[in-house]
Amino acid sequence: MFRKKSIFTFLQAQVAAFIGGITDYGLMILLTEVFKFHFTFSILISGTVGAIINFSINRFWVFKNQAGYRNPINSQLFKFALVVLGSISLKSFGTLVLQKVFQIDYKIGRLITDSFVSYGFNYPLIKYWVFRINEKQNIIESN
């Protein structure tokens, strides 16, 4: 039962990340190609918008039925903002390195960087830190 719930939560989180990511990526392309912003600045703006969408979906759908949902939203927002700052920094830096060092188009470099950042940085921190269930809540929920 626990494993099934974990897999379902992981899949839900991936849907949230996908929706936030599509918004983020599309806005990055728009800002860079149409408005001629440098892609690192576009990533900052688009990442912020994507993060707001991602947080909302995670809080109100993915982790809604878990005790972590009852944590104060201010605490979760603060933690999530720190994750987003790290994520945007890693995505901007990774995309820049792939573009400058390896001559990979920023659009492709961003997709490569995103895959590593999403699974290796964002998901673990969001699940185990931002929306973490503490032991007191876990005991209360099980009684």
The count of DSSP E runs of length 2 or more, i.e. the number of strands, is 0
In whole angstroms, how far apart are the ends? Answer: 18 Å
Helix count?
Answer: 5
Percent of residues in beta strands:
under 5%
Q: Please state the oligomeric state of the protein chains shown.
A: single chain
Helix content: over 70%
Number of individual domains: 1
What are its keywords?
mainly alpha; 5 helices; 0% strand; disordered C terminus
Task: Explain this structure.
The chain has one domain. The radius of gyration is 17 Å and the shape is elongated. The protein has helices at residues 2-34, 39-62, 73-102, 106-130, 135-142. With 143 residues, it is mainly alpha-helical.
In short:
The protein has about 140 residues and is an all-alpha fold.
Topology summary:
Elements: H1 2-34, H2 39-62, H3 73-102, H4 106-130, H5 135-142
Helix pairs in contact: 1-2, 1-4, 2-3, 3-4
Subcellular location: Membrane
Domain GtrA/DPMS transmembrane: 18-131
Pfam families: GtrA_DPMS_TM
